[in-house]
Amino acid sequence: RGGISSPHGNISEERFRRKLQMKILQMQSNIYSENKNFEGCQCQKNEPTQFQLNVANGEGKDGERKATSKDSNIGTSSVTKKKSKRREMREAEDMDHGNDEQQQQQQQQQRRLRQVNITLPPVLEHYTQFIWTTAGHSAAAGHGNLFNESYTAFFERAAKPIFDSIGISFQARNYAMGGMRSGPELALCQEAVYGIDSDMITWDFGMTDAGKEHNKNLFAHRIGVHQNRPATMYIRIDGYEKDAYLAPLEEQGLTTFYMEPNVVSDIQKHVPDMLGMSQNEINQVPEFLRYYKCSKKIEKGEPGCEKLKYNDAICPDRMHKAPWHPGWKVNAVYGNIMAMWLIESLQDALKDLGTVEDPIAKLEELKRLEQKDYDTFLKSKFPEDPINQLMPDKEKMEGDVKPSLIHRSRAICHTALLPSDIRYKGILTETRSSVGPDLYAKGISQEEANKNPTQDGSMRIVVEEKERQSWCPVQLKADFKDFFYTTDKDGTTSLKFPNQRELAEYNSQKDFKPKGVLVICFILCDWDKCPDGEMQYKEFNEKKFSLKVNGKKVSELVSLDLCAILKHEDGYNWEPDERGQYEISAKVKKQSDDKTSYIRITSLILM
After folding, report:
1. Are 61 and 51 in contact (CB under 8 A)?
2. Which of 56, 165, 395, 597 is within CB 3.0–4.6 Å of 109 for a Cys-Cys bond?
3. In terms of DSSP H, where are the helices of 313-462?
């Protein structure tokens, strides 16, 4: 449907329809808990809401005061403006025809109601939410465009009003990160980065995961142990990947979709080519198709497609306007494909659900069916082949760290990466004020950290400052590889995790019993070229910096692809302190008088 499919027939469609129905029933149950007279969905009743009646009577939202042209909290409506001449004439005609006072009031109210329905923004109450989260690389993040021109932004603008109309708050989060692979770091940090409330997570790592089958495999299996049991949609994959990776996942019980590889190119065949058109003819082409295709090329060629690929109305000198990043018009196609598919899926869910007399009982029934699928998943086997790429030294671990622990166990991730829920909610820094994408605790610059060593021995959060492009008045991107920082000037630094808010968020049911296996991820340098002074796995083996956990020396960093498992002289299981925490301490040795030596840790993971 609409270019989005599941590997085997309608299996995932049925599971996703159930997931949407659970949202609808949760919304109805929440309404019922507030109003025992609620009789299920009343969408078919053609009756005005109390708010509309209040406005039609010239009252405010609560019916407590009259709305006037000078004193209105409605915002955009002409209801509170002076009567138009046409309205005055109609009311005069009513009176001339001898209508009694009650008839006059009714007719006047109906006219006002018609105007309210046409001109007022909807007054929304949300009783539950649906969260769609984009995971991917720089193209998914929207690099080169304005942040509100990513396909996630187009998608949200199209789908949100439909969900709003039935009392479900819809949010599409663009949590993609440029230059990142899907694993192992992001796969192990799914809850911390994408949030424990995600209902759908997309995978769009085609460029960075090419040839890295173990990453796709790990990311998919980690979805299966996510607290909220999200569905997954894979974007920009080929037919082989669909059969090799997605089909087994669906058979094992996961809700899995993919965007068909040719759907966008098929749409683009029908886009008008600007070549040969006069300027007047080009101007008549709809904005989203204008300069989309030139000389049979997409966002390239003459006349003007390459030049007008990006929106240069503001901040034209922004970073990442690379040839391989799609422009805003291509992003709009992707966003609207997903929106149309989701809206149709929601319509099917509503129709299939029909009239439900007891939404609470129906909701529990659907939850049991979902649990059955996830029990099937947890009992299933996962393929062995990619594990050798992920864990090249697995024989060295002698069974202490089994592949099942990495793929199927719960984890708590302490990450500085952005965008991430753990940062935006203030969980990482244990702050309850100054939270959100604009207000979270941001840390300090690397330049400042180099000039001013830590005073309290803490391992500080340092920001990737250049990428923020703060000179531009509008948001250009949200993904930054921030990190926990230690230099040779700092002496010994440390941090403790998991903190109390991490435990509350990621182990609220206290059903996660960690094995004490710890994973460290250093920053992934752009194009695998790290700057002078950077120290990572090789330098640890050369004893240029040291690590300890609760005062016990780390003897080896055992490869987990781009991350590493911390080993002590007796094995891989670390004992927590009396509060269930692990204090990670680091000390960097001075290597040169001319440059600062340092380590940059992006994530620490407990399994």
Report:
1. yes
2. 56
3. 328-353, 359-379, 387-390, 403-408, 421-424, 446-451
Of the listed ranges 94-103, 233-242, 479-488, the least confidently predicted one is: 94-103
Q: Are 589 and 539 in contact (CB under 8 A)?
A: no
Rounded to whole angstroms, the Cα distance separating 472 from 177 reads 20
Question: Tokens 């829920």 sit at which residue?
Answer: 421
Go through 102-135 and write b for each residue having 16 or more CB atoms within 10 A of its CB, e for each that does not. Answer: eeeeeebbeebbebbeeebeeeeeebbebbbbbb
Burial class (CB in 10 A: 0-12, 13-18, 19+), 424: buried
pLDDT digits (tens, 9 = 90+) for 23-49: 999 988 888 777 766 655 544 344 554
Instruction: Kindly report, residue by residue over 83-95, the tens digit of the pLDDT.
Output: 344 444 444 444 4
**How open is the CA angle 199-200-205, to the nearest 5 degrees?**
145
Q: Under a CB-based contact definition with an 8 Å cutoff, are residues 4 and 258 in contact? A: yes
CA triplet 11, 15, 233: central angle to 5 degrees?
85
H-type helices in 510-553, by residue range?
537-541
Report residue 293: phi and psi, to 5°: -130, 130
User: Reduced to 3 states, what is the DSSP secondary structure of residue 257?
Assistant: strand
Find where tokens 């039935």 sit: 166
List pLDDT tens digits, range 115-174.
Answer: 444 333 444 567 899 999 999 999 999 999 999 999 999 999 999 999 998 889 999 999
89 DSSP 8-state letter: H
User: Residues 571-601: pLDDT tens digits?
Assistant: 999 999 999 999 999 999 999 988 999 999 9
Residue 196, C-beta contacts closer than 8 angstroms, at least 6 positions apart: 226, 227, 228, 421, 505, 506
Find the length of the chain.
Answer: 607
**CA dihedral for 571, 573, 577, 583, sign (positive or negative):** positive
- H or E segment at 218? helix 213-223
**Average pLDDT for the chain:** 86
CB atoms within 10 A of CB 300: 14
Question: What are residue 135's DSSP bridge partners?
Answer: 203
Q: Helix (H) and strand (E) counts for the chain?
A: 21, 20
Do 192 and 170 meet the contact criterion of CB atoms below 8 Å apart? Answer: no
State the Cα–Cα distance between residues 576 and 550, nearest whole angstrom: 7
